[in-house]
Structure formats: C-alpha cells, structure tokens
Amino acid sequence: MLSVRVQKDIGEYTEKIVGKLSARTLACLAGGLASAVGAAALCQFALGIEVRDAALPVMCASLPFWLAGFWRPHHMKFEKFVPLWLDFQLEGQKILYCSTPVLEGAQASPVPGRPSRKAKRKAKRKGAEANAPVR
Q: Is residue 62 classed exposed, middle or buried when 0-12, 13-18 and 19+ CB atoms within 10 A define those classes?
C-alpha cells in the first residue's frame, strides 16, 4: 500500500536539502568537519603531534557544531535555546508576582439568592455537578 507522510503543523516543516538533512543541519555538519580537519592540521603541522594521537582536540573542536546541528533541547533549535538558558542562569531566578489591572477591578461575587437563567442552563449540562450553585 502506498502512503505519504503529511505534516500536521506547517510551522514544524523544514525543507530537506540532502537526504533527511535541512540546510541548517548540513551547514553545522560541514562546520564540524571543517573544524575537525583544521584542528588535526594544527596539531600535525604547528604542534608536531600525530593526528592519531590528537583525537581529543579534534573531537572537542567539532563537538559544538555537532550539538548545534542535531541536539534539540526542549524541542528548540540550539541557537534559540542557548540565549534563553544563559538568561535564566545569569538572572537572579526570582519571579515577581503582581496582580493585573483586570483582577484589581474584578466584579464582586453575585448576590446569593435565586440563580439566573444562565446559571440554571449551565447546571443542566452534562457533568455540571461540579459547577452547581451552592445555596
């Protein structure tokens, strides 16, 4: 049977360039590869360390690009998550709660007595036991 996958939300769709890689992921992958080759060349030619012995610097150079391309913390892109996380870590982490003007000018509760037509209709609905007016 032939089937086609349909995206539920068009906002989640990302255009694929090569295979299942988007342009962003492909750029991060290329950046990781370039930084790994650059770190290996630096170790080989500038520091005189053999490439096979310089695995840790090569991996450390390419790891940020791999994370930026494939890691999605809390279903967010890496470049969106990092500023939010840094802002949370660097702030005082105190939340100030204050009432809104709507709540300050809220109407008082209705006067007890006979319920209105609207309240009666609401009470007749299925599952309205929790919303029943108290006398």
A: buried
